[in-house]
Amino acid sequence: MMDLGISGRGALVLGGGGGLGSAIAKSLAREGVKVAVADLVEAAADKTVAAIRESGGEATAVSWDLADHAAMESTMDDLEKSHWSVDILVNITGGPPPSPVTSQTEELWKDQFNAMVLSVIRLTDRLLPGMKERGWGRIITSTSSGILTPIPNLGLSNALRSALVGWSKTLAREVGGYGVTSNLVIPGRIATRRIVFLDEAKAEREGRAVEDVTEESVSSIPVGRYGEPDEYAAAVTFLASASASYITGASIRIDGGLIPSV
Amino acid sequence: MDLGLKARVYIVTGSTSGLGKACAAALLGEGARVVIASRDQARVDAAVANFEERHPGQVRGVVVDLIDPEAPHSLVKSALQGWGQIDGLLVSGGGPPVAGVMTATDEQWKDSFDTVFLGPLRVARAVAAKMSAGGCISMVLSGSVYAPIPELALSNGLRPGLAMALKTLSDELGGTGIRTVGLVPGRIETARTIELDSAHPEVSERRNKAIPTGRLGTPEEFARVAAFMLSPAASYVNGTCVVIDGGARRSL
Predict the structure, then answer these.
(1) How far is B189 from B195, CA to CA, in rounded Å?
(2) DSSP conformational letter for B120
(3) Cβ–Cβ < 8 Å for A66, A119
(4) From the CA atom positions of chain B, what is the Rg in Å?
């Protein structure tokens, strides 16, 4: 067993009720991390918290709309009042509606920028002073393979998530001296409800069977299968650990080899 | 975290010193079995004896030079004779000599191609042919995969090619369940780095200060990442390079 050296640390996992977030929250909890599970859908966060507690872990649920700055501030204030320090922040934001980049309204771009990019930047800014003060922190931002290989018809995601690439790298240099690391994790196609939804949407758009779309997608992945959320979670947990102390400003792909470039 | 390394079999080249040795130690510490290899009999004997003390029955030693076309065969044979399986390979080794594009001789390019490129590739090929499903082929590369390092033209010219060959290998091996992962170290505090730094202390100090973490990495920090990436816990990490450099790389 590798001791990851994070037992007793506190984490905040966004999207903690979803496929990727819940797997990450549970994986961190297995290492003795106290996890604040955040999700827009409170019941989903509660479900992850219940699962963690059932296995003897420590967790609490929080819920706010990522686009709502004031709600984030007050939620973080409440967490701090209950002596919950966030040493590990896992930024996961929901995927935008599938669409091309052309002919989208300015309002949609702004709303998605606010929800997917600015929310992450504000939350990180809110939590960084505590991490710096304690001399230890992990900021892990989950993006998409679209930042390296733009995914057709996921234009908003391709464009907006790329903003976080430059942000995370710049942040790594700014906080490196404080024992805080900042890294991106890049999922390929991990078997969550979102992937099922995207396959279904593509099938409908192209008038094909969903199985056909899925099979085509799977065959484009060198390992020949979708990833499991637990496989994604294991890599994120390792990055969150004391063992990953010299990895910062990096992008770690967990994609089974999908992204066709070095 | 249980990395699932217990009783798995790894070949680690260049493992009697530096990063290779640290990686072998990390794998052994997680219960793996390791074939230790380097060019020097005395160093192999010493490393095996040293590891054997803490991890009895988990270590075998082989003396090989990767420029020898027979080297892969010796490594594979040792692992299979000892434990009947191979679950992973980590190719680690020294870098090419210091030279610029304008100063390196044809002879140096050809020699460096053999040591930096062909040697590692040959071992990867041979091991892949005998490896168990779920195995991982990994190589210690260099920051020169992404950005040229001054005066290391030979590395800058050859390492990117090796990284691309490793990526190609992951595409070819996909159906077999074998992964490939390149490990890209930044400045790690090995005996060689300390020696190089002591020759130009001011230059090194300035360079090390420019690392966002403000310090060199330790071989153990690098090795823990290697152990994770080589293990079944990293089962969906494939065909990619992982940079362990304290944020030193300037580009995205």
Answers:
(1) 10
(2) H
(3) yes
(4) 17
Q: Of A94, A213, A211, A212, give the one whose Cα is nearest residue A161.
A: A94
* Pairwise CA distance, residues A56 & B162, whole Å: 46
For residue A207, the Cα-to-chain-centroid distance in whole angstroms is 32
Yes or no, beta carbons of B218 and A249 under 8 Å apart: no
Token pair belonging to A168: 């995370």
**Which residue of chain A is at minimal alpha-carbon distance from B214?**
A177
**A246 to chain B nearest CA, in Å?**
5
Q: How many CB atoms lie within 10 A of CB B163?
A: 21
pLDDT in tens, B81-139: 999 999 999 999 988 999 999 999 999 999 999 999 999 999 999 999 999 999 999 99
Put simply, the answer to whether A235 touches B240 (Cβ < 8 Å) is no
Question: Is A1 in Cβ contact with B237 (below 8 Å)?
Answer: no
In the block, which residue shows the tokens 């091309």?
Answer: A100
Split at pLDDT 50, 70, 90, the class of A1 is confident
In the numeric block, which tokens belong to residue B182? 């390149």
H helices present in chain A, as ranges: 19-30, 42-54, 69-81, 106-113, 119-134, 155-175, 193-206, 210-219, 229-240
Residue of A nearest to B223 (CA): A243
Alpha carbons A62 and A78: distance in angstroms, whole number: 10
Could you tell me if B116 and B99 are in contact, meaning their C-beta atoms sit under 8 angstroms apart? no
Q: B residues 177-206 near A, CB within 8 Å?
A: 177, 179, 182, 186, 188
CA-based nearest residue in chain B for residue A169: B252
Packing angle, helices A119-134 and A69-81, rounded to 10: 30
Q: Indicate yes or no: CB of A241 within 8 angstroms of CB of B1.
A: yes
Interface touch B170/A166, C-beta < 8 Å: no
Q: Is the ipTM of this complex over 0.90?
A: yes
Spans in chain B with pLDDT lower than 50: none
Q: Tell me the average pLDDT of chain B.
A: 96
What is the Cα–Cα distance from A82 to A145, expressed in whole angstroms? 37
Question: A223, A226, A253: best mutation site toward chain B, by most B Cβ within 10 Å?
Answer: A223
Residue A256: closest CA among A230, A233, A240, A232: A232
Residues of B in contact with A256 (CB under 8 A): 236, 238-239
From residue B208, alpha-carbon distances to A164, B98, B143, B201, B215 in Å are: 26, 19, 14, 10, 6
Tell me which residue in A235, A244, A261 faces B237 most closely, judged by beta carbons: A235
